[in-house]
Design a protein that fits this description.
Elements: E1 3-6, E2 9-12, E3 15-18, H1 25-34, E4 37-38, E5 44-45, E6 49-50, E7 53-54, H2 55-67, E8 69-71, E9 77-80, E10 89-91, E11 94-96, H3 98-104, E12 105-117, H4 122-149, H5 169-175, H6 181-204, E13 219-221, E14 226-231, E15 234-241, E16 244-250, H7 257-268, E17 272-283, E18 286-298, E19 309-313, E20 320-323, E21 329-333, H8 336-358, H9 367-398, E22 403-407, H10 419-432, E23 436-438
Parallel strand pairs: 19-22, 22-23
Antiparallel strand pairs: 1-2, 2-3, 4-5, 6-7, 8-9, 10-11, 12-16, 12-18, 13-17, 14-15, 15-16, 17-18, 19-20, 20-21
Helix pairs in contact: 4-6, 8-9, 9-10
């Protein structure tokens, strides 16, 4: 067996050891027989050590992992391989299938504004993050265009063929070297998912245009590239932005008590980190840098003794009506303010549109007021959606209903209300507390 001395230790059979630590036992056999390479004359030779890591020993360990089947804690098995199947997760030393993971964890996003730059100035940080926003926007649009250019075109076929795999990472790294490699990889997956969702309408029916990204597109970092810690009861995020790492202190206080509960779980390791996004949002009329952290949070225990179903539907006279299984009306939520806000906003937009026809200029003098009114209307509706969904989920939990049947087919009460956002929000809130949610109309007795 060939030996060579170098650095702090010696190479024995491809494994780096200290001067006083001989290689023996099973490790020596693995290092000598399992990972030995072959030279041009067929003789075995040890594999090198790269940055203190024995390449041969690592390859042997990876080969053992590939030959072992994936086994969930529930006993479900998948074929051997070093990559987890779709939907499977690894937490620590354990592997979980999609069903077990969904029963244990719940995916949530926590958004908090950046309050202070711990190791720099705001001018330096804003210059760095704006460069990332510009590069992310350009890279996203380039990827979307390339996916469209390399896709098929309809030429008399009746069925849209499957999309061929497109690997844009090497070209994107060469075109946008200022973006970190992990961010480019995450961006590639996001853009491809967005394109696949719109592919049928863009390519086949021509009912939609190609999706585009506008500045500032959020700058995303995978879970391996950022950390979170708590200092003096305040969250501090460490993430790479541009060519260096930044420590960002997030806002805290009573206003963010719900976000802080989830942040503490991320910091102490009880929640599994996901991606981190930095984006810009106006708060009180001023632009602020927002930090969105995605994490798999532990589920709360399902309440005991849940029974019965609560039926909730929309009507032409009120926003929502709740009915028990026996047909008795429990409550009616009219929400007349929503209809009034929607009517006022629609009328004001029409009046501005009439004025724009008279004032023929590239940008009307009331453009800023129109944008402010639209932003105010969106914020009002978003707040209403959150309040209504939270109140409905809280009522179902207090009354210990096992299921909520929801039907919003009748939108005549307020056509401009975001009904789909309300339905999705109700489902999320009920999922958090372990109550089943049925958004189909088949089980809702509307004629009672």
């Amino acid at each position: 067996m060939s030996e060579s001395r170098g650095g702090d230790g010696e190479l024995h059979g491809g494994r780096k050891i200290g001067r006083d630590r001989p290689v023996h036992g099973s490790r020596a056999r693995v290092a000598q027989s399992s990972v030995a390479g072959r030279n041009s004359r067929g003789a075995s030779e040890p594999l090198p050590v790269v940055r203190g890591i024995d390449v041969g020993f690592a390859r042997a360990s990876a080969q053992v992992l590939k030959e072992k089947p994936m086994v969930c804690v529930c006993g479900k098995e998948r074929g051997p391989g070093d990559r987890l199947p779709k939907g499977w997760k690894r937490s620590g030393e354990s592997v979980y299938c999609a069903d077990c993971w969904r029963r244990m964890r719940i995916l949530r996003a926590i958004s908090m504004p950046v309050a202070e730059i711990m190791d720099g100035t705001w001018e330096e940080f804003r210059a760095s993050v704006r460069e990332m926003w510009a590069a992310t926007t350009q890279c996203s649009n380039w990827m979307m265009t390339q996916l469209y250019a390399r896709d098929v075109r309809r030429n008399g076929e009746l069925k849209l063929p499957p999309m061929a795999p497109v690997y844009l990472y090497p070209e994107a790294r060469a075109r946008f070297p200022q973006l970190p490699s992990q961010s480019v990889s995450a961006l590639d997956q996001m853009v491809q998912a967005k394109y696949r969702a719109a592919r049928y309408q863009v390519i086949w029916t021509c009912a939609a245009s190609l999706p585009t990204f506008r500045y500032p597109t959020p700058f995303s970092s995978p879970n391996q590239t950022w950390t979170l810690r708590i200092e003096d009861e305040r969250p501090v995020v460490s993430a790479r932005v541009g060519d260096r790492r930044w420590s960002l202190r997030l806002k805290s206080g009573p206003r963010y008590r719900r976000q802080l509960t989830a942040v503490r779980k991320i910091a102490d390791g009880s929640a599994d980190r996901g991606s981190l996004d930095l984006y810009e949002q106006k708060i009180d009329g001023k632009p602020a840098v927002m930090c969105k952290m995605v994490a798999w949070l532990p589920r709360r225990e399902r309440p005991s003794k849940l029974e019965g179903a609560l039926s909730v539907w929309s009507t032409a006279e009120s926003l929502l009506v709740a009915v028990k299984e026996d047909g008795n009306v429990l409550w009616t939520y009219h929400a007349d303010q929503l209809r009034r806000w929607s009517a006022e906003h629609r009328e004001q937009l029409q009046r501005w549109a009439d004025d724009a026809r008279f004032e023929r200029r590239p940008m009307a003098s009331f453009t800023a007021r129109r944008e402010a009114a639209a932003r105010k209307y969106r914020n009002r509706m978003n707040s209403a959606v959150r309040e209504i969904a939270g109140s409905l989920a809280g009522y179902a939990a207090r009354r210990k209903f096992a299921m909520v049947r929801y039907d919003d087919r009748d939108t005549s009460f307020c056509p401009g209300f975001p009904w789909s956002a309300l339905r999705e929000r109700i489902g999320l809130k009920l999922d958090e507390i372990g109550i089943e949610f049925d958004s189909g109309s088949g089980g809702v007795p509307r004629d009672s």
